[in-house]
């Protein structure tokens, strides 16, 4: 699936249904979602594998941090677009927490601030990160595609695309284990983002999963949800493809 294939679905699921899918169908659907996320998540990307084996140079880490920051600062944007689609106050109250998790309740708080601390810990200034001067074209394209997807697609698909959160806590735990071991030159304060995302990712993944399981009540709905999750995995994988290419010897913009 590509960023161009973001036309709205003809019959979107817009609200939780009164009658849930049969338990057997629901259990099988959950298994398919979890299996897809596990097989396609970017922890298997060669760049992440090298990162977690301690093989990245300081400049490779800086390239990753700068480009991932472009993704991080667009998370509240895509979440605001999803928020506007949600059918009721309970769902909106719950989802708005995600925006605050990243933007913070005040200056100097939130996930974006913690990513800026990581940037400083690897030797990047805030001005350099905010300028976007190190953001690669492929990363811009992938992030724009994801934001556009969340703007145009149904609530079911937009929420389903967030189910990579099911795998996020594990990769954060891996980084908390490997960064101090292999990259001791990075100050411990720079790892605050990874720490915060372990509980947040667990909570967010379980919440989104429950909604998708409730909303996807037909085989067509389930296929749309699986396609949305697959697309999100492609976004994360493409981001790392761009970073890996830029880090290759002789690569140029």
Summed up, what is this model?
The chain is an all-alpha fold and 253 residues long.
Order of helices and strands: HHHHHHHHHHHH
* CATH architecture verdict: Up-down Bundle
**Number of DSSP E strands:** 0
Strand content is: under 5%
Q: Any idea of the CATH class?
A: Mainly Alpha
Number of domains: 1
Mean residue pLDDT: 91
Helical run tally: 12
Report helical residue fraction. 55-70%
How far apart the termini lie comes to 25 Å
Question: Which topology does CATH recognise?
Answer: Heme Oxygenase, Chain A
| Unreliable residue runs | 1-18
- SS-based structural class? mainly alpha
Full CATH superfamily name? Heme oxygenase-like
Q: Tell me the Rg in angstroms.
A: 18 Å
Q: How can the largest sheet be summarized?
A: none
Notes on the structure:
- By secondary structure, the protein is mainly α.
- The protein has one domain: Heme Oxygenase, Chain A (Up-down Bundle), CATH 1.20.910.10.
- 68% of the residues lie in helices and 0% in strands.
- The N terminus is likely disordered.
């Amino acid at each position: 699936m590509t960023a161009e294939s973001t036309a709205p679905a003809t019959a979107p699921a817009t609200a939780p249904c009164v009658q849930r899918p049969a338990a057997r169908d629901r259990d099988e659907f959950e298994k398919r979602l979890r299996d897809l996320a596990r097989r396609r998540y970017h922890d298997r990307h060669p760049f992440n594998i090298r990162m977690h084996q301690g093989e990245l140079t300081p400049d490779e880490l800086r390239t990753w941090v700068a480009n991932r920051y472009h993704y991080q600062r667009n998370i509240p944007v895509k979440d605001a677009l999803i928020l506007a689609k949600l059918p009721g106050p309970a769902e909106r109250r719950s989802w708005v927490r995600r925006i605050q998790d990243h933007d913070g309740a005040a200056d100097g708080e939130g996930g974006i601030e913690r990513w800026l601390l990581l940037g400083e810990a690897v030797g990047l200034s805030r001005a350099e990160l905010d300028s976007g001067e190190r953001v690669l074209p492929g990363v811009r394209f992938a992030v724009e595609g994801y934001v556009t997807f969340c703007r145009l697609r149904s609530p079911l698909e937009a929420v389903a695309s967030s189910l990579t959160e099911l795998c996020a806590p594990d990769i954060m735990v891996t980084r908390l284990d490997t960064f101090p071991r292999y990259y001791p030159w990075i100050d411990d304060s720079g790892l605050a983002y990874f720490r915060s995302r372990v509980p947040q990712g667990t909570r967010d993944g379980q919440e989104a999963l429950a909604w998708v399981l409730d909303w996807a009540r037909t085989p067509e709905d389930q296929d749309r949800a699986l396609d949305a999750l697959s697309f999100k995995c492609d976004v994360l994988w493409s981001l790392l493809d761009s970073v890996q290419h830029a880090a290759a010897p002789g690569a140029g913009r």
